[in-house]
Design a protein that fits this description.
- The complex is a heterodimer of chains A (279) and B (290).
- Chain A is an alpha/beta fold.
- In chain A, the strands form two sheets. Chain A has a six-stranded mixed sheet, with helices on both faces. Chain A has a four-stranded antiparallel sheet with strand order 2-1-4-5, with helices on one face.
- In chain A, a hairpin with a 2-residue loop joins strand 4 and strand 5.
- In chain A, helix 3 packs parallel to helix 6, helix 4 packs across helix 6 and helix 6 runs parallel beside helix 7.
- In chain A, 51% of the residues are buried.
- Chain B is of the alpha/beta class.
- In chain B, 36% of the residues lie in helices and 20% in strands.
- Chain B has eleven helices and ten strands.
- In chain B, the strands form two sheets. Chain B has a six-stranded mixed sheet with strand order 6-7-8-3-9-10, with helices on both faces. A four-stranded antiparallel sheet of chain B has the order 2-1-4-5, covered by helices on one side.
- In chain B, strand 7, helix 6 and strand 8 form a beta-alpha-beta unit.
- The two termini of chain B are 39 Å apart.
- The N terminus of chain B is likely disordered.
- Classes of the chains: A alpha/beta (279), B alpha/beta (290).
Chain lengths: 279, 290
Protein backbone atom coordinates (compact mmCIF):
# COMPACT_ATOMS: atom_id res chain seq x y z
CA UNK A 1 0.00 0.00 0.00
CA UNK A 2 1.23 3.44 -0.87
CA UNK A 3 -0.19 6.78 0.20
CA UNK A 4 0.96 9.58 -2.05
CA UNK A 5 0.42 13.11 -0.68
CA UNK A 6 -3.00 12.19 0.70
CA UNK A 7 -5.18 15.04 2.00
CA UNK A 8 -8.53 14.46 3.71
CA UNK A 9 -10.81 17.11 5.20
CA UNK A 10 -14.21 17.14 6.87
CA UNK A 11 -16.92 19.75 7.11
CA UNK A 12 -16.97 21.13 10.65
CA UNK A 13 -19.86 22.48 12.73
CA UNK A 14 -19.34 26.04 11.47
CA UNK A 15 -19.57 24.94 7.82
CA UNK A 16 -15.82 25.25 7.25
CA UNK A 17 -13.38 22.45 6.50
CA UNK A 18 -11.14 20.74 9.07
CA UNK A 19 -8.05 19.15 7.58
CA UNK A 20 -7.64 15.67 9.00
CA UNK A 21 -4.71 14.54 6.83
CA UNK A 22 -2.26 16.99 5.29
CA UNK A 23 -0.27 15.52 2.43
CA UNK A 24 0.59 12.17 4.02
CA UNK A 25 2.97 9.97 2.03
CA UNK A 26 3.68 6.50 3.43
CA UNK A 27 4.34 2.98 2.26
CA UNK A 28 3.20 -0.15 4.05
CA UNK A 29 4.71 -3.44 2.98
CA UNK A 30 4.52 -6.33 5.43
CA UNK A 31 5.17 -6.34 9.17
CA UNK A 32 3.28 -4.47 11.86
CA UNK A 33 3.20 -0.69 11.73
CA UNK A 34 1.95 1.11 14.84
CA UNK A 35 0.17 4.42 14.32
CA UNK A 36 0.47 6.77 17.27
CA UNK A 37 -0.80 10.28 17.90
CA UNK A 38 -3.07 12.18 20.22
CA UNK A 39 -6.84 12.14 19.82
CA UNK A 40 -7.64 14.06 16.63
CA UNK A 41 -4.18 13.61 15.10
CA UNK A 42 -5.56 11.72 12.08
CA UNK A 43 -4.92 8.05 12.97
CA UNK A 44 -8.46 6.84 12.33
CA UNK A 45 -8.75 8.94 9.16
CA UNK A 46 -5.49 7.45 7.90
CA UNK A 47 -6.73 3.89 8.53
CA UNK A 48 -10.01 4.65 6.78
CA UNK A 49 -8.20 6.22 3.82
CA UNK A 50 -5.97 3.14 3.53
CA UNK A 51 -9.03 0.88 3.74
CA UNK A 52 -10.78 2.82 0.98
CA UNK A 53 -13.60 3.82 3.32
CA UNK A 54 -12.71 7.48 2.84
CA UNK A 55 -11.83 9.05 -0.48
CA UNK A 56 -8.97 11.58 -0.27
CA UNK A 57 -9.61 15.19 -1.31
CA UNK A 58 -6.31 15.01 -3.14
CA UNK A 59 -3.40 12.62 -3.45
CA UNK A 60 -3.65 8.92 -4.20
CA UNK A 61 -3.96 5.62 -2.34
CA UNK A 62 -2.26 2.88 -4.36
CA UNK A 63 -2.73 -0.88 -3.94
CA UNK A 64 0.10 -2.77 -5.67
CA UNK A 65 0.67 0.37 -7.73
CA UNK A 66 -2.98 0.62 -8.84
CA UNK A 67 -5.07 3.66 -7.88
CA UNK A 68 -7.48 2.36 -5.23
CA UNK A 69 -10.07 4.96 -6.25
CA UNK A 70 -10.55 3.24 -9.63
CA UNK A 71 -11.70 -0.16 -10.99
CA UNK A 72 -8.97 -2.78 -10.59
CA UNK A 73 -7.19 -0.98 -7.74
CA UNK A 74 -10.44 -0.55 -5.85
CA UNK A 75 -11.36 -4.22 -6.33
CA UNK A 76 -7.89 -5.29 -5.19
CA UNK A 77 -8.13 -3.12 -2.09
CA UNK A 78 -11.68 -4.32 -1.35
CA UNK A 79 -10.57 -7.94 -1.58
CA UNK A 80 -7.47 -7.54 0.53
CA UNK A 81 -8.29 -5.06 3.31
CA UNK A 82 -9.93 -5.83 6.64
CA UNK A 83 -10.68 -2.96 9.00
CA UNK A 84 -11.60 -3.28 12.69
CA UNK A 85 -13.22 -0.05 13.85
CA UNK A 86 -12.50 1.64 17.15
CA UNK A 87 -15.97 1.04 18.55
CA UNK A 88 -16.81 -2.57 17.65
CA UNK A 89 -20.56 -2.40 18.21
CA UNK A 90 -20.72 0.11 15.35
CA UNK A 91 -19.65 -2.54 12.87
CA UNK A 92 -22.02 -5.34 13.95
CA UNK A 93 -25.14 -5.99 11.90
CA UNK A 94 -25.84 -9.73 12.11
CA UNK A 95 -28.16 -11.28 14.74
CA UNK A 96 -25.69 -13.87 16.02
CA UNK A 97 -21.95 -14.03 16.68
CA UNK A 98 -21.54 -16.93 14.23
CA UNK A 99 -23.25 -15.03 11.41
CA UNK A 100 -21.27 -11.91 12.25
CA UNK A 101 -17.89 -13.66 12.19
CA UNK A 102 -18.70 -15.76 9.10
CA UNK A 103 -20.21 -12.90 7.07
CA UNK A 104 -17.01 -12.03 5.21
CA UNK A 105 -16.32 -15.69 4.48
CA UNK A 106 -19.83 -16.30 3.14
CA UNK A 107 -19.60 -13.13 1.03
CA UNK A 108 -16.44 -14.56 -0.50
CA UNK A 109 -18.22 -17.80 -1.39
CA UNK A 110 -17.06 -20.09 1.45
CA UNK A 111 -19.19 -23.18 2.06
CA UNK A 112 -21.12 -23.26 5.31
CA UNK A 113 -18.80 -25.90 6.80
CA UNK A 114 -15.71 -23.93 5.77
CA UNK A 115 -17.26 -20.71 7.12
CA UNK A 116 -18.02 -22.42 10.44
CA UNK A 117 -14.53 -23.91 10.68
CA UNK A 118 -12.79 -20.62 9.91
CA UNK A 119 -15.08 -18.70 12.28
CA UNK A 120 -14.28 -21.15 15.08
CA UNK A 121 -10.58 -20.76 14.31
CA UNK A 122 -10.71 -16.94 14.36
CA UNK A 123 -12.73 -16.83 17.58
CA UNK A 124 -10.34 -19.32 19.16
CA UNK A 125 -7.42 -17.06 18.23
CA UNK A 126 -9.14 -14.32 20.23
CA UNK A 127 -9.73 -16.66 23.19
CA UNK A 128 -13.45 -17.12 22.46
CA UNK A 129 -15.50 -20.22 21.70
CA UNK A 130 -17.89 -20.52 18.76
CA UNK A 131 -19.82 -23.26 20.60
CA UNK A 132 -20.25 -21.00 23.61
CA UNK A 133 -20.99 -17.67 21.93
CA UNK A 134 -22.06 -18.57 18.37
CA UNK A 135 -25.80 -18.26 18.93
CA UNK A 136 -25.65 -15.15 21.09
CA UNK A 137 -26.28 -11.65 19.79
CA UNK A 138 -23.02 -9.70 19.34
CA UNK A 139 -24.84 -6.70 20.79
CA UNK A 140 -25.45 -8.56 24.09
CA UNK A 141 -21.77 -9.30 24.75
CA UNK A 142 -19.47 -7.44 27.12
CA UNK A 143 -17.34 -4.65 25.65
CA UNK A 144 -14.21 -6.82 25.71
CA UNK A 145 -16.00 -9.72 24.02
CA UNK A 146 -17.44 -7.39 21.35
CA UNK A 147 -13.99 -6.10 20.51
CA UNK A 148 -12.63 -9.64 20.21
CA UNK A 149 -15.57 -10.75 18.03
CA UNK A 150 -14.99 -7.72 15.78
CA UNK A 151 -11.31 -8.62 15.39
CA UNK A 152 -12.17 -12.30 14.81
CA UNK A 153 -14.66 -11.36 12.08
CA UNK A 154 -11.85 -9.65 10.19
CA UNK A 155 -9.16 -12.27 10.96
CA UNK A 156 -11.51 -15.00 9.68
CA UNK A 157 -10.98 -13.91 6.07
CA UNK A 158 -7.18 -13.73 6.54
CA UNK A 159 -6.89 -10.28 4.99
CA UNK A 160 -3.64 -9.40 3.26
CA UNK A 161 -4.02 -5.90 4.72
CA UNK A 162 -5.16 -5.88 8.36
CA UNK A 163 -6.15 -2.46 9.71
CA UNK A 164 -6.92 -2.15 13.43
CA UNK A 165 -8.13 0.91 15.32
CA UNK A 166 -7.28 0.68 19.05
CA UNK A 167 -7.72 -3.11 19.13
CA UNK A 168 -6.54 -3.55 22.74
CA UNK A 169 -8.63 -0.78 24.34
CA UNK A 170 -10.71 -2.20 27.18
CA UNK A 171 -9.23 -5.71 26.91
CA UNK A 172 -7.97 -7.50 30.01
CA UNK A 173 -4.38 -8.84 29.99
CA UNK A 174 -5.28 -12.32 28.69
CA UNK A 175 -7.49 -11.00 25.90
CA UNK A 176 -4.89 -8.37 25.10
CA UNK A 177 -2.16 -11.00 24.79
CA UNK A 178 -4.42 -13.13 22.55
CA UNK A 179 -5.10 -10.10 20.37
CA UNK A 180 -1.43 -9.15 20.08
CA UNK A 181 -0.43 -12.75 19.35
CA UNK A 182 -3.03 -12.90 16.55
CA UNK A 183 -1.75 -9.60 15.12
CA UNK A 184 1.84 -10.83 15.19
CA UNK A 185 0.86 -14.19 13.66
CA UNK A 186 -1.00 -12.46 10.81
CA UNK A 187 2.11 -10.39 10.03
CA UNK A 188 4.39 -13.42 10.30
CA UNK A 189 2.18 -15.20 7.76
CA UNK A 190 2.67 -12.33 5.33
CA UNK A 191 -0.11 -9.84 6.06
CA UNK A 192 0.59 -6.13 6.21
CA UNK A 193 -0.74 -4.87 9.54
CA UNK A 194 -1.39 -1.23 10.46
CA UNK A 195 -2.53 -0.74 14.04
CA UNK A 196 -3.54 2.60 15.53
CA UNK A 197 -3.03 2.58 19.28
CA UNK A 198 -2.46 4.80 22.30
CA UNK A 199 -1.00 1.75 24.04
CA UNK A 200 2.78 2.10 23.70
CA UNK A 201 3.28 -1.15 25.62
CA UNK A 202 1.13 -3.09 23.16
CA UNK A 203 3.01 -1.59 20.22
CA UNK A 204 6.30 -2.36 21.95
CA UNK A 205 5.26 -6.02 21.93
CA UNK A 206 4.21 -6.34 18.29
CA UNK A 207 5.21 -3.40 16.12
CA UNK A 208 8.20 -3.43 13.78
CA UNK A 209 7.77 0.20 12.87
CA UNK A 210 6.00 3.19 14.42
CA UNK A 211 4.54 6.18 12.59
CA UNK A 212 3.50 9.19 14.67
CA UNK A 213 0.95 11.74 13.51
CA UNK A 214 0.27 15.25 14.73
CA UNK A 215 -2.30 17.56 13.16
CA UNK A 216 -2.69 15.22 10.19
CA UNK A 217 1.03 15.14 9.38
CA UNK A 218 3.65 12.45 9.90
CA UNK A 219 6.07 13.68 12.57
CA UNK A 220 8.03 10.49 13.31
CA UNK A 221 8.54 7.31 11.30
CA UNK A 222 11.07 4.72 12.41
CA UNK A 223 11.86 1.34 13.98
CA UNK A 224 9.56 0.62 16.92
CA UNK A 225 12.39 0.15 19.42
CA UNK A 226 14.06 3.44 18.58
CA UNK A 227 10.83 5.37 19.10
CA UNK A 228 9.02 3.46 21.86
CA UNK A 229 12.26 3.06 23.83
CA UNK A 230 13.05 6.79 23.79
CA UNK A 231 10.95 8.49 26.46
CA UNK A 232 12.36 11.97 25.80
CA UNK A 233 11.78 11.81 22.02
CA UNK A 234 8.20 10.65 22.44
CA UNK A 235 7.50 13.24 25.15
CA UNK A 236 8.83 15.97 22.84
CA UNK A 237 6.15 14.89 20.36
CA UNK A 238 3.41 14.87 23.01
CA UNK A 239 3.36 11.07 23.09
CA UNK A 240 4.21 8.33 25.52
CA UNK A 241 7.01 5.76 25.20
CA UNK A 242 6.63 2.26 26.63
CA UNK A 243 6.23 2.01 30.37
CA UNK A 244 9.69 0.37 30.64
CA UNK A 245 11.26 3.23 28.66
CA UNK A 246 9.64 5.81 30.93
CA UNK A 247 10.85 3.88 33.99
CA UNK A 248 14.36 3.72 32.48
CA UNK A 249 14.28 7.50 31.98
CA UNK A 250 13.16 8.04 35.60
CA UNK A 251 15.94 5.76 36.84
CA UNK A 252 18.57 7.58 34.77
CA UNK A 253 17.37 10.93 36.14
CA UNK A 254 17.88 9.49 39.65
CA UNK A 255 21.43 8.45 38.77
CA UNK A 256 20.84 4.74 38.08
CA UNK A 257 22.74 3.56 35.01
CA UNK A 258 20.38 1.83 32.57
CA UNK A 259 21.84 0.46 29.34
CA UNK A 260 20.05 0.56 25.98
CA UNK A 261 16.38 1.06 25.13
CA UNK A 262 14.40 -1.47 27.20
CA UNK A 263 10.82 -2.09 26.11
CA UNK A 264 9.52 -4.41 28.83
CA UNK A 265 10.18 -5.48 32.44
CA UNK A 266 12.64 -8.24 31.55
CA UNK A 267 14.65 -5.96 29.29
CA UNK A 268 14.58 -3.22 31.93
CA UNK A 269 15.92 -5.58 34.61
CA UNK A 270 18.72 -6.74 32.30
CA UNK A 271 19.49 -3.12 31.36
CA UNK A 272 19.79 -2.22 35.06
CA UNK A 273 22.13 -5.15 35.73
CA UNK A 274 24.24 -4.27 32.67
CA UNK A 275 24.36 -0.65 33.82
CA UNK A 276 25.63 -1.74 37.25
CA UNK A 277 28.28 -3.86 35.57
CA UNK A 278 29.57 -0.86 33.64
CA UNK A 279 29.48 1.49 36.66
CA UNK B 1 -18.73 16.20 49.48
CA UNK B 2 -18.86 19.83 48.58
CA UNK B 3 -18.67 21.09 52.15
CA UNK B 4 -20.36 23.92 53.98
CA UNK B 5 -20.45 26.44 51.13
CA UNK B 6 -22.90 24.23 49.24
CA UNK B 7 -25.25 23.81 52.19
CA UNK B 8 -28.78 24.08 50.88
CA UNK B 9 -27.80 24.32 47.23
CA UNK B 10 -29.22 21.96 44.65
CA UNK B 11 -25.68 20.81 43.97
CA UNK B 12 -25.13 19.88 47.62
CA UNK B 13 -26.30 16.29 47.20
CA UNK B 14 -26.86 13.60 49.80
CA UNK B 15 -24.59 13.41 52.78
CA UNK B 16 -23.34 10.56 54.89
CA UNK B 17 -21.73 11.27 58.23
CA UNK B 18 -20.42 7.77 58.78
CA UNK B 19 -16.87 6.89 57.78
CA UNK B 20 -18.12 4.09 55.55
CA UNK B 21 -19.61 5.53 52.36
CA UNK B 22 -20.22 2.20 50.60
CA UNK B 23 -21.25 -0.91 52.49
CA UNK B 24 -22.11 -3.97 50.42
CA UNK B 25 -22.96 -7.32 51.99
CA UNK B 26 -23.54 -10.56 50.11
CA UNK B 27 -24.55 -9.01 46.79
CA UNK B 28 -25.59 -11.67 44.32
CA UNK B 29 -26.67 -10.92 40.78
CA UNK B 30 -27.36 -12.76 37.54
CA UNK B 31 -28.44 -11.24 34.22
CA UNK B 32 -29.26 -14.80 33.10
CA UNK B 33 -30.56 -17.02 35.95
CA UNK B 34 -28.10 -19.91 35.58
CA UNK B 35 -25.08 -17.63 35.07
CA UNK B 36 -24.31 -15.53 38.16
CA UNK B 37 -22.31 -12.35 37.58
CA UNK B 38 -21.82 -11.56 41.27
CA UNK B 39 -21.55 -14.16 44.04
CA UNK B 40 -21.82 -12.89 47.62
CA UNK B 41 -19.80 -9.75 47.13
CA UNK B 42 -18.84 -7.71 50.19
CA UNK B 43 -17.32 -4.27 49.75
CA UNK B 44 -16.57 -1.46 52.17
CA UNK B 45 -15.31 1.91 50.98
CA UNK B 46 -14.36 4.63 53.44
CA UNK B 47 -14.99 8.32 52.92
CA UNK B 48 -12.33 9.92 50.74
CA UNK B 49 -10.77 6.61 49.67
CA UNK B 50 -9.64 5.90 46.10
CA UNK B 51 -10.40 2.24 45.50
CA UNK B 52 -9.33 0.55 42.28
CA UNK B 53 -11.43 -2.44 41.22
CA UNK B 54 -9.50 -4.74 38.89
CA UNK B 55 -10.37 -8.03 37.22
CA UNK B 56 -10.49 -9.69 33.83
CA UNK B 57 -13.36 -9.15 31.36
CA UNK B 58 -16.47 -10.77 32.78
CA UNK B 59 -15.20 -10.82 36.39
CA UNK B 60 -18.20 -8.78 37.57
CA UNK B 61 -16.47 -5.45 38.23
CA UNK B 62 -18.74 -3.40 35.95
CA UNK B 63 -21.85 -5.14 37.30
CA UNK B 64 -20.69 -4.28 40.82
CA UNK B 65 -19.98 -0.68 39.82
CA UNK B 66 -23.45 -0.38 38.27
CA UNK B 67 -25.02 -1.51 41.54
CA UNK B 68 -23.45 1.46 43.28
CA UNK B 69 -25.67 4.00 41.57
CA UNK B 70 -28.59 1.65 41.02
CA UNK B 71 -28.12 1.27 37.28
CA UNK B 72 -28.40 -2.41 38.10
CA UNK B 73 -31.10 -3.31 40.63
CA UNK B 74 -30.24 -5.23 43.78
CA UNK B 75 -31.39 -8.86 43.45
CA UNK B 76 -29.95 -10.25 46.68
CA UNK B 77 -27.83 -8.97 49.54
CA UNK B 78 -27.64 -5.54 51.13
CA UNK B 79 -26.11 -2.32 49.82
CA UNK B 80 -25.89 1.11 51.39
CA UNK B 81 -24.33 3.99 49.48
CA UNK B 82 -23.92 7.35 51.21
CA UNK B 83 -26.25 6.09 53.93
CA UNK B 84 -28.99 5.22 51.43
CA UNK B 85 -30.46 1.74 51.12
CA UNK B 86 -30.16 0.60 47.48
CA UNK B 87 -33.20 -1.66 47.91
CA UNK B 88 -35.47 1.25 48.86
CA UNK B 89 -37.20 2.57 45.71
CA UNK B 90 -38.25 5.76 47.50
CA UNK B 91 -34.63 6.98 47.69
CA UNK B 92 -33.54 5.77 44.24
CA UNK B 93 -33.04 9.26 42.79
CA UNK B 94 -31.26 10.46 45.91
CA UNK B 95 -28.90 7.48 45.63
CA UNK B 96 -28.21 8.24 41.96
CA UNK B 97 -27.33 11.79 42.89
CA UNK B 98 -25.12 10.57 45.74
CA UNK B 99 -23.18 8.25 43.43
CA UNK B 100 -22.32 9.41 39.91
CA UNK B 101 -20.74 7.35 37.15
CA UNK B 102 -18.29 8.16 34.38
CA UNK B 103 -18.32 5.59 31.60
CA UNK B 104 -15.79 4.26 29.09
CA UNK B 105 -16.95 6.29 26.09
CA UNK B 106 -17.60 9.93 27.04
CA UNK B 107 -19.69 10.52 23.91
CA UNK B 108 -22.24 8.00 25.17
CA UNK B 109 -23.13 10.12 28.17
CA UNK B 110 -23.50 13.61 26.75
CA UNK B 111 -27.02 15.03 26.58
CA UNK B 112 -26.10 18.41 25.07
CA UNK B 113 -23.46 19.46 22.58
CA UNK B 114 -22.69 22.58 24.66
CA UNK B 115 -20.36 21.92 27.61
CA UNK B 116 -22.15 24.21 30.12
CA UNK B 117 -25.60 22.84 29.24
CA UNK B 118 -24.39 19.27 29.45
CA UNK B 119 -22.81 19.73 32.87
CA UNK B 120 -25.89 21.61 34.19
CA UNK B 121 -28.23 18.83 33.06
CA UNK B 122 -27.67 16.75 36.21
CA UNK B 123 -28.57 19.40 38.79
CA UNK B 124 -31.48 20.62 36.61
CA UNK B 125 -32.75 17.07 36.37
CA UNK B 126 -32.53 16.76 40.15
CA UNK B 127 -34.70 19.87 40.58
CA UNK B 128 -32.28 22.83 40.74
CA UNK B 129 -33.41 26.07 39.10
CA UNK B 130 -31.56 27.34 36.03
CA UNK B 131 -29.28 29.77 37.85
CA UNK B 132 -28.37 27.32 40.63
CA UNK B 133 -27.74 24.58 38.07
CA UNK B 134 -25.55 26.95 36.07
CA UNK B 135 -23.54 27.85 39.19
CA UNK B 136 -23.13 24.16 40.04
CA UNK B 137 -21.94 23.52 36.48
CA UNK B 138 -19.38 26.34 36.62
CA UNK B 139 -18.07 25.09 39.95
CA UNK B 140 -17.81 21.53 38.64
CA UNK B 141 -15.97 22.70 35.49
CA UNK B 142 -13.53 24.61 37.67
CA UNK B 143 -12.98 21.49 39.80
CA UNK B 144 -11.90 19.48 36.73
CA UNK B 145 -9.75 22.29 35.32
CA UNK B 146 -12.12 23.31 32.51
CA UNK B 147 -13.02 26.80 33.67
CA UNK B 148 -14.07 28.88 30.65
CA UNK B 149 -15.14 25.86 28.57
CA UNK B 150 -18.87 26.29 29.22
CA UNK B 151 -19.73 27.56 25.72
CA UNK B 152 -17.55 25.06 23.87
CA UNK B 153 -18.88 22.24 21.66
CA UNK B 154 -18.29 18.92 23.49
CA UNK B 155 -17.65 17.13 20.20
CA UNK B 156 -14.80 19.50 19.37
CA UNK B 157 -12.90 18.61 22.56
CA UNK B 158 -10.11 16.06 22.95
CA UNK B 159 -10.94 12.69 24.53
CA UNK B 160 -9.39 13.70 27.84
CA UNK B 161 -11.33 16.97 27.90
CA UNK B 162 -14.54 15.08 27.07
CA UNK B 163 -13.97 12.70 29.99
CA UNK B 164 -13.39 15.69 32.27
CA UNK B 165 -16.68 17.21 31.04
CA UNK B 166 -18.34 13.86 31.86
CA UNK B 167 -16.72 13.96 35.31
CA UNK B 168 -17.91 17.56 35.80
CA UNK B 169 -21.42 16.46 34.78
CA UNK B 170 -21.32 13.96 37.62
CA UNK B 171 -19.80 16.42 40.13
CA UNK B 172 -22.38 19.13 39.41
CA UNK B 173 -25.01 17.03 41.17
CA UNK B 174 -22.88 16.96 44.32
CA UNK B 175 -22.23 13.23 44.72
CA UNK B 176 -20.58 11.56 47.71
CA UNK B 177 -19.06 8.91 45.47
CA UNK B 178 -17.70 9.01 41.92
CA UNK B 179 -17.45 5.70 40.04
CA UNK B 180 -15.25 5.61 36.94
CA UNK B 181 -15.81 2.55 34.75
CA UNK B 182 -12.80 2.03 32.43
CA UNK B 183 -12.88 5.78 31.94
CA UNK B 184 -9.35 5.98 30.53
CA UNK B 185 -9.43 3.09 28.06
CA UNK B 186 -10.60 5.13 25.06
CA UNK B 187 -8.55 8.27 25.54
CA UNK B 188 -4.93 9.06 24.74
CA UNK B 189 -2.17 9.11 27.41
CA UNK B 190 -2.34 12.89 27.75
CA UNK B 191 -6.11 12.64 28.28
CA UNK B 192 -5.59 9.85 30.82
CA UNK B 193 -3.11 12.01 32.75
CA UNK B 194 -5.51 14.98 32.60
CA UNK B 195 -8.36 12.85 33.95
CA UNK B 196 -6.20 11.37 36.71
CA UNK B 197 -5.06 14.86 37.72
CA UNK B 198 -8.69 16.05 37.73
CA UNK B 199 -9.73 13.11 39.93
CA UNK B 200 -6.85 13.86 42.31
CA UNK B 201 -7.92 17.50 42.49
CA UNK B 202 -11.53 16.54 43.11
CA UNK B 203 -10.44 14.23 45.93
CA UNK B 204 -8.20 16.86 47.46
CA UNK B 205 -10.54 19.84 47.16
CA UNK B 206 -13.95 18.22 47.48
CA UNK B 207 -13.12 15.13 49.52
CA UNK B 208 -14.70 12.84 46.94
CA UNK B 209 -14.72 9.09 47.40
CA UNK B 210 -13.65 7.40 44.17
CA UNK B 211 -14.20 3.87 42.91
CA UNK B 212 -12.16 3.33 39.74
CA UNK B 213 -12.83 0.21 37.67
CA UNK B 214 -9.78 -0.37 35.50
CA UNK B 215 -7.50 -2.78 33.67
CA UNK B 216 -4.62 -0.34 34.10
CA UNK B 217 -2.42 -1.81 36.80
CA UNK B 218 -0.17 1.28 36.82
CA UNK B 219 -3.26 3.31 37.75
CA UNK B 220 -4.34 0.71 40.34
CA UNK B 221 -0.87 0.96 41.92
CA UNK B 222 -1.67 4.58 42.79
CA UNK B 223 -4.94 3.80 44.57
CA UNK B 224 -5.37 3.68 48.35
CA UNK B 225 -6.75 0.18 48.04
CA UNK B 226 -7.11 -2.43 45.31
CA UNK B 227 -10.04 -4.85 45.07
CA UNK B 228 -9.38 -7.86 42.83
CA UNK B 229 -12.42 -9.56 41.31
CA UNK B 230 -12.66 -12.91 39.56
CA UNK B 231 -15.69 -14.94 38.43
CA UNK B 232 -18.08 -12.63 40.27
CA UNK B 233 -16.25 -12.77 43.60
CA UNK B 234 -13.91 -10.49 45.49
CA UNK B 235 -10.65 -12.45 45.47
CA UNK B 236 -8.63 -9.93 47.47
CA UNK B 237 -8.77 -6.43 48.89
CA UNK B 238 -5.83 -4.53 50.30
CA UNK B 239 -3.06 -2.01 49.85
CA UNK B 240 -1.47 -1.94 46.37
CA UNK B 241 1.88 -2.92 47.91
CA UNK B 242 0.32 -6.16 49.20
CA UNK B 243 -2.16 -7.06 46.45
CA UNK B 244 -0.19 -6.07 43.35
CA UNK B 245 2.93 -7.95 44.44
CA UNK B 246 1.02 -11.23 44.87
CA UNK B 247 1.91 -12.83 41.55
CA UNK B 248 -0.07 -16.03 42.22
CA UNK B 249 -3.23 -14.10 43.08
CA UNK B 250 -2.98 -11.91 39.98
CA UNK B 251 -2.26 -14.92 37.78
CA UNK B 252 -5.40 -16.57 39.14
CA UNK B 253 -7.35 -13.39 38.41
CA UNK B 254 -6.00 -13.18 34.84
CA UNK B 255 -4.12 -9.99 35.63
CA UNK B 256 -0.49 -8.95 35.53
CA UNK B 257 1.62 -7.08 38.03
CA UNK B 258 2.55 -3.45 37.37
CA UNK B 259 5.86 -2.90 35.55
CA UNK B 260 7.81 -1.99 38.72
CA UNK B 261 6.82 -5.24 40.45
CA UNK B 262 7.60 -7.33 37.34
CA UNK B 263 10.98 -5.64 36.95
CA UNK B 264 11.75 -6.20 40.63
CA UNK B 265 10.80 -9.89 40.37
CA UNK B 266 13.19 -10.22 37.43
CA UNK B 267 15.97 -8.46 39.37
CA UNK B 268 15.38 -10.79 42.33
CA UNK B 269 15.50 -13.81 39.99
CA UNK B 270 18.84 -12.51 38.66
CA UNK B 271 20.14 -12.07 42.20
CA UNK B 272 20.36 -8.32 41.69
CA UNK B 273 17.77 -7.23 44.27
CA UNK B 274 15.97 -8.41 47.37
CA UNK B 275 13.32 -7.14 49.73
CA UNK B 276 9.72 -6.11 49.17
CA UNK B 277 8.75 -5.33 45.58
CA UNK B 278 7.76 -1.78 44.63
CA UNK B 279 4.55 -1.27 42.64
CA UNK B 280 5.18 2.17 41.13
CA UNK B 281 8.05 3.57 39.07
CA UNK B 282 8.75 6.05 41.89
CA UNK B 283 8.96 3.09 44.27
CA UNK B 284 11.34 1.29 41.92
CA UNK B 285 13.58 4.36 41.75
CA UNK B 286 13.59 4.61 45.57
CA UNK B 287 14.31 0.90 45.98
CA UNK B 288 17.26 1.01 43.58
CA UNK B 289 18.66 4.30 44.86
CA UNK B 290 18.10 3.65 48.55
Amino acid sequence: MTLDKVCVSFEDASGGRTRALEGVSLEFSGGVTGLMGQTGSGKTTLLEAVAGVLAPDSGRVLADGLDAARGAGGRLLGASAGLVFQIPERQFFEPTVEEEVSFGLRARGASSSEARERSAWALDLMGLSLDELGRRSPFALSGGQQRRVAIASVLAVRPALLLLDEPTAGLDPRAREACLAAVRAAADEGATVVMASHDANALAEVADRVVCLEGGRVTLDGPARELLGDAALMRDHGLEASCAARAAAALRRAGVAVEGLPLDAEELARAIVRGRGRA
Amino acid sequence: MRGEKDEGSAAGGARCDEDRVIEARGIRHAYVPARPDLRDVDLDVRRGELVAVVGENGSGKTTLARHLNALVGLQAGALRVAGLDASDPSTLWELRRACGMVFQNPENQFVSSVVGEDVAFGPENFGAGGERAREAALEALRAVGLEGFERRDVHALSGGQQQRVALAGVLASGPEVVVLDEATSMIDPRGRDELMAAVERVRRELGATVVWVTHDMELAARADRVVVMGAGEVLASGAPADVLTDAALLERAGLEQPLAARTWAELVRMGAADGPAPVTVEGLVSALCG
